[in-house]
Amino acid sequence: METNHDHVLLTSAELSYMWTTYLSDSMAICVFKYFLKHMEDEEIKSLVILAMQLSEEHIRFISETFSKEKIQIPQGFTDQDVNLEAKRLFTDVFYLKYLKQTAKAGLTAYGRVLQSTYRQDILDFFNTCIKETSDLNTKATQLLLEKGLAMRPPTIPYPNKIEFVHKQSFILEGLGRRKAFTGSEITNLHSNILTNYLGTALATAFSQVAESNKVQNYFLRGKEIALKHIKVFGSYLEMCSLPLPMSYNQDVTESKESPFSDKLMMFHFSLMIYAGIGNYGVSISESQRSDMNVDYSRLMAEVMKYSEDGANLMIANEWMEQPPLAANRSDLAKG
């Protein structure tokens, strides 16, 4: 039986998450349209079409919900933000790796959203989103494995007996450095390297095609930061003789013709930055090495400063839509 939601207002969480989802999916549709224009691999193409269809369904639901609630629909991104006639900027292999990484980010985001969602229609929507994203992630993973492109985390020996930690140096390496890493620490190092590799590839591509010199320099600075972070994380894996994943930069062409507006590219990069900050926070919570947590903390601070500079650049160009805000009671009192 269909439930009537007319008397149940959207909470701040539900409104904000749907607003952000609208912006993200409108951007994704532009990106996928461009990807499809140059794609040759039919298997990868079918996944990109699926991803675009999911984004279109999300836009449709949110638009209908906002209209019923008399909420202003965001401008988001439109056909004006994409040039489908631009030359190929990425390889088909990049498209598949991109899908894998964005599906991973989607699973993390939707999982967080569900915890704060209560209205049944919105809960159903985000439950559907997480299931669809999980299916997309599975298909992308299977195709990466079939094509020999999957970059799996390293393996570690299976435990063959029960052991307990007897020294505080397990956490405080200054009292006797712990050379072996836990499985969670290795997984997060590997994952953060992959995320930063995607960032360097996009920064390389976007810096080649950006129209504004300030935007171009912003992407080049982001590339330098990502490469530095990869070096830090890689040094930990090398410390225990574990392999590093491969870079994505070989999947960027030499095209200098921009397929996207500077506004879209800046927004895309900001989404990756926010996801990266979240990943570092999770990595800190799952690490039991004090030296590693110090590195995560200082690298996170660097990314947050970079994010702030990006936000200021977007504001200066009037590219940042204002998100839903709480009422300013002091202003209301003043009339």
TrEMBL record:
Gene3D superfamilies: 1.20.1260.10. It comes from the Bacteria. This is DUF3231 family protein. It comes from Cytobacillus eiseniae.
